[in-house]
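> tool_call: predict_assembly(chains=two)
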Amino acid sequence: MDRRDFLKKCVMVVAGASIPLSALTLVDPRKVLAANPDIQWAFLVDTNKCVGCGFCVKACKTENDIPFDANVTRTWVERYVYTKDDRRYVDSPKGALNGFTESRIDLGKGEFKEIDPKNVGKAFFVPKLCNHCTTPPCTQVCPVGATYKTDDGVVLVDRKWCIGCGYCIMACPYAARFFHPVLKVADKCTFCYHRLSKGLQSACVNACPFGARRMGNIHDPNDPITQIIMNERVGVLKDEFGTKPQAFYIGLAQEVR
Amino acid sequence: MKSHVWRPLYVVIALVVGLLVFRFFYVPHDFSSGKRGFMYSFHRMSNEAEWKQQPAKYGTTGRERMHEYCSACHGAVVKVRSENLHGIIPCEDCHGPAMNHPEAPEKLNIDRSRELCLRCHTNLPYTTSERKRIPGIDPKGHNPGEQCVKCHNPHNPKLEDMK
């Protein structure tokens, strides 16, 4: 054995001895995924099923301690009425906390518009909530780092750190944020993060009798919600803003924004 | 060495150092970014756990497992209800949040108001909406001011079975 061979074999022995046994076991991707699940929460709204009962708004306000009387809400339902002479009306009195119990349209500032039932062309209801955007403008503008997107795709507000400046409320293109009148911080839909982490459905999904609201993990291809989003015709709100919303709508009309 | 250039510079350096020291003690140490980076998720990491610890109020009476939890004790009522038109409505929508019922709250606060029924049963002239499938009344003409549950049984709302 010459010196070259000796050195070669030395290197081989050292390299072989330095490989730990664990490196030789095969990795099962399903086991790895189960230990660190790749979750991206997404919301699916079926506007065809909504009747505007407002149970979702009531449940949300109860679950998350949002004052009932204050005109703020994390989720709300909008009513769209198109008349046969091509006028369009939208309203959401109190965010539909008590549903829509009158046929007249709330124009705001105490004004109402009664529409002749014979003149109503089409009408429908659209539930709205925070879209939990993939690139949320609200978290970018926060000057103190009090609002953020979690790894599982939920946009949250740090109530202890928020200074209540209101930048994020102005930055949201969907008007999904509001100023909490009691806690004096910015507040918004959390997808009921406390319920999700306990394995429960969010309060509004739980309360909807018609199945108009659903929620799922968009990174799981076998999730029924993901199946619908991938295979059926769904839309998002204000796509042109580039916020990549994670709330998808079935039966979205052009006027709904 | 005295210099009109160096002396204000010391003041600036002292201010910067002071600011950094203040920041070190004031800003929580678990401030960092998740996998989404600084722009979207620079935050206090412990806040995620704070949100998760919030108590839940509503149980699971929604569409997925709606009749399971309540029928364990109230089986007879739930059976009547689930066979009827109102079977799609989660119990908690009218009976109130029941996460830790029957411990706390011991008794649920049932909403028997007329307004609750009118959420769905106000007649709106929207023939193209899903609302058209639900029978509706004119709230101003149909026994105004009365509670609906005085005549109608919410667990079995069929008109032919009305008491």
